[in-house]
Amino acid sequence: MEKTKKQEIIFAVIKILAYLSVVFLATLLGYIFFRGFKVINIRFLTDVPRNGITEGGIFPAILGTFYLVLVSFIFAVPIGILAGVYIAEYTEENRFTQFIRVSVNILSGVPSIVFGLFGLAIFVNKMHFGVSILSGGLTLGILILPTVIQATIEALRSVPYSFREASFGIGATKWQTVKNIVLPTGISGILTGIILSIGRAAGETAPILFTAATFYTGRLPKSIFDEVMALPYLIYGLMTTGTFPDKQIPIAYGASTILLLLVFTMSIIAIIIRLKSRRNRKW
User: Fold this and answer.
1) Has residue 26 been placed in a domain?
2) pLDDT tens-digit profile of 9-32?
3) Fewer beta carbons within 10 Å, N or C terminal of the chain?
4) 214 inside domain
């Protein structure tokens, strides 16, 4: 009886804490959306900023965020998937493999500002890409690379080994098995990890602080070697400059709302992919 009462108390506390976390999240998002939707309109989404970002829109920041995410995607996804396939399918369980996994885990926990300093030292200064879309995109690509690798490894390991045995049994090679059986079966998990990593890349400020972003520009980028505005850095700049707070802070809330909606959309896509994958599984 005493154990039952203790369990009931513990479960009640857990339930209360869970509800509190939801309330805090809803309050935060509701406050941002309430203030952000007041300034969002067609002009806000399609116009360039004017008069020190006190008027106009945030289209250059939206476009710049898209370009940075696109470069990071092109860089990180092929390397991450190939690395994950190699680790999951072609390496044996030994110290070297364990070292690789630990290194990937450590890399995924490195603060994002460190990636920004790395991008500044390597891409901006050593490789002379300058403060540009290319430097920022490559830095974000390295940032999300561990996530893509881990997602690929976990997705491939979730594929039953009997699938591989059946493929080997009909004479398929290792690569044919991986290409035609393992990867198609685990693709939903890989895509989920990719989409979530892209959502993280879109919301990062520190890695692009030194490598790609400028606070204010009235022109759109013409090449990957141009610097760009980006939503995270725009929000940071508007909230910290304080030049015209009455005009700039509402724009910051509008940009925050757009950024949150972008990340939410990517997360919802990942959830849909996961649910469809579970429904389609036959094992």
Assistant:
1) no
2) 888 889 999 999 999 989 988 999
3) N
4) yes
